[in-house]
Design goal:
The complex is a heterodimer. Chain A has one domain: Protocatechuate 4,5-dioxygenase, Chain B (3-Layer(aba) Sandwich). Chain A has 9 helices and 10 strands. Chain A has helices spanning 14-17, 24-43, 95-108, 122-131, 154-169, 197-208, 212-215, 220-227, 234-243; strands spanning 3-9, 48-53, 68-71, 75-78, 89-92, 113-115, 139-144, 175-180, 248-257, 262-270. Chain B is mainly α. The relative contact order of chain B is 0.16. In chain B, helix 1 crosses helix 2 and helix 1 crosses helix 6. Chain B has helices spanning 2-15, 17-25, 27-30, 38-46, 49-54, 59-68, 73-81. Chain B has one domain: Orthogonal Bundle (Protocatechuate 4,5-dioxygenase, Chain A), CATH 1.10.700. The chains are: A alpha/beta, B mainly alpha. Chain A binds chain B through residues 17-18, 21, 56-59, 61-62, 80-83, 119, 121, 147-148, 186-190, 192-193, 229, 259, 261, and chain B through 4, 7-8, 11, 14-15, 53, 58-64, 67-68, 73, 76-77, 80-81, 83-84.
C-alpha cells in the first residue's frame, strides 16, 4: 500500500502543560487545527503510524547517542514528564513494521540503531495525543538526533525520509507518516520565548514549494543561529518532505505562540 | 569532565520515576552516586538554575528538571536572564 496520510506538527509542551497561558485565539486556532489533523489521520484508516520524531533525553544520553534509531517494540510508555498534563498510557508499537524498516535500511545503505524499549517524551506523545487520541493505531518511532551536536545533516535526513517513503510504498500496510518538532524555538535557553517568524515562514515556503535544494541546504550553524536549539527539529519535517516528495503540502496553521515559546506549525500533505 | 556526571544525574531524575523518588526522599544521598565537584554538588542541591546553566547543563535537561521543582516560566526566565 502507498502511504495513506502525512503531516508535520510542532510539539511544544506548553500546548498541554500551560495551554491557557497562550492568547485564546491562538490556542483555539492551533489546537483546533491539530484535532482536525487527527480526524484526517483517522479517516485515512492507517494500519500503523511511522513517527519521524526526536527526543529530549528520554532514552539516549551522551554515553551513546544515535543519529537515527528505529523502534521495534511491542509498546511504548509515556509521557515521561509528570507535569505535561497528558495521562500516562501505553502506546501500541508495530514491531513487525519496525523490524522491516530496520532491515530495509541496513540493506539499503542506512545504518540506524534499533531498540526494543523506548520511552516517549512530549516530542512523540503530545502529537499522538492529538493525532491518535485513542492510541489505537500502532506506532513505529524513527528517532532523529536533533538534541545535541554533531547531528545528521538536513541532506541525510531528507535521504532517509526518501528511502523510508520508497520502502513503505512496497509494504502491505496502510501507513500514516508524521513528522514532529520545530519550528524556531530556544527551549530552556536564556533566549527562551524568542521566535524567528521570518525563518519559520521561509522554511514553510520552501516546504510548500517543494524546494528540496533549499530544504537540504540548511546547515547546523544556520539553524542554530536562526531557529534556535529547538529549531534543529525541522530535520524531521525535511525527512518527511523526502518521504512524500510528490505530495502537496498545505499549511493548516502557523502561530508564533510566545507563552509556548515556539513557532508552532501544522502542515498536511496531500497525494 | 564532571559536567557529564552532573547532566547524568539530571537525566536520571527527569526520566526514571524510581530514581526520581530516591532523589526526592534524600537529594544529598542521591547525588553521592555521581562524581561531582563541590560547586556542582552545591548547585545541584540548591537547584541553582543560573549556576547550572552557566556550567553548561543542556537546556532540555535543565528546564524539565526545574519543572519537577515547580519553577514557573517567569521564574525560570528570570534565573537565566541573570546569567547572561
Amino acid at each position: 500500500m502507498p502511504i495513506v496520510f502525512a503531516c508535520a506538527a510542532s510539539h511544544a509542551p506548553g500546548m498541554t502543560a500551560w495551554t491557557e497561558a497562550a492568547p485564546k485565539q491562538q490556542a483555539d486556532n492551533f489546537l483546533g487545527s491539530y484535532r482536525k489533523l487527527g480526524e484526517m489521520l483517522t479517516a485515512s484508516k492507517p494500519d500503523a503510524i511511522v513517527a519521524l520524531t526526536v527526543e529530549h533525553w528520554a532514552n539516549f544520553f551522551l554515553n551513546s547517542m544515535p543519529s537515527f534509531c528505529i523502534g521495534r517494540a511491542e509498546h511504548y510508555d509515556g509521557p515521561i514528564e509528570e507535569w505535561l498534563r497528558i495521562p500516562k498510557a501505553r502506546v501500541p508499537g508495530d514491531a513487525k513494521l519496525g523490524k522491516e524498516l530496520i532491515e530495509a535500511c541496513l540493506d539499503g545503505g542506512f545504518d540506524p540503531t534499533f531498540s526494543d524499549e523506548l520511552l516517549f517524551d512530549h516530542a512523540t506523545f503530545l502529537p499522538l495525543h492529538f493525532l491518535n487520541p485513542q492510541m489505537a493505531v500502532p506506532v513505529v518511532p524513527v528517532i532523529i538526533n536533533t538534541l545535541t551536536p554533531p547531528m545528521p545533516t538536513a541532506r541525510r535526513c531528507f535521504a532517509l525520509g526518501q528511502f523510508l517513503g520508497r520502502t513503505l510504498e512496497r509494504n502491505q500496510k496502510r501507513v500514516a507518516v508524521i513528522a514532529t518538532g520545530g519550528l524556531s524555538h530556544w527551549p530552556g535557553e536564556a533566549k527562551h520565548g524568542k521566535i524567528n517568524i521570518p525563518f519559520d515562514k521561509n522554511f514553510l515556503e520552501n516546504l510548500i514549494a517543494r524546494d528540496f535544494t533549499s530544504l537540504t541546504a540548511y546547515t547546523y550553524d544556520e539553524i542554530n543561529a536562526e531557529a534556535g536549539s529547538g529549531g534543529h527539529e525541522i530535520r524531521t519535517w525535511i525527512a518527511l518532505a523526502g518521504a512524500v516528495q510528490n505530495w502537496t503540502a498545505e499549511l493548516l496553521a502557523y502561530e508564533p505562540v510566545v507563552p509556548w515559546a515556539t513557532g508552532c506549525g501544522l502542515v498536511a500533505f496531500h497525494p | 569532565m564532571s559536567l557529564y556526571q552532573l547532566q547524568k544525574l539530571i537525566y536520571h531524575v527527569n526520566r526514571d520515576p524510581a530514581q526520581r523518588e530516591r532523589y526526592r526522599q534524600d537529594p544529598a544521598a542521591f547525588i553521592t552516586s555521581y562524581e561531582l565537584t563541590e560547586e556542582e554538588s552545591k548547585a545541584a542541591l540548591k537547584v541553582d538554575l543560573r549556576t547550572l546553566y552557566s556550567m553548561g547543563v543542556h537546556s532540555l535537561l535543565l528546564r524539565p528538571f526545574s519543572l519537577l521543582h515547580k519553577v514557573s516560566n517567569e521564574d525560570y526566565a528570570k534565573a537565566l536572564k541573570e546569567s547572561e
